[in-house]
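User: Second chain of the day. Same drill as before.
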Amino acid sequence: MKTDELNKGFTLLELLVAVAILTIVALTSLSNNSTIISNNSYLHEKTLAHWVAMNKAAELRLAGNWLTGKREGVAVMAEQKWRWIISGRLTPDPDIQLLNIEVRPEAEEGQTPLAVLTMYLGRSAGYKIN
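Assistant: Same format as last time:
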């Protein structure tokens, strides 16, 4: 046998380097997948909280009531309880009011709200539709 025929394979060191590189790539991929999964969960919760805030804004517009001070409550969406806080303030225009709606999961009371919606609510003009 010639010595050229014996030296055609990989050395043990080359194999260890290749396995180390593949391991680093695999671990990086797993870490990225974990981040994507946790972000997906966060965005799902944030979307639901925003929907709760939009529902409360629609209720306030339809009711036409003038809100001063704070109002709190709990809403259920997607089989989860959400705590909402609405605070109303007057604006320089006496017929327009500024409302802030904050929504957070009920279990996370005291935490930063997942959704904050700011809206202006005008007084009813008294028009009647026949």
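The chain is about 45% helix and 30% strand.

User: Great, on to the next one.
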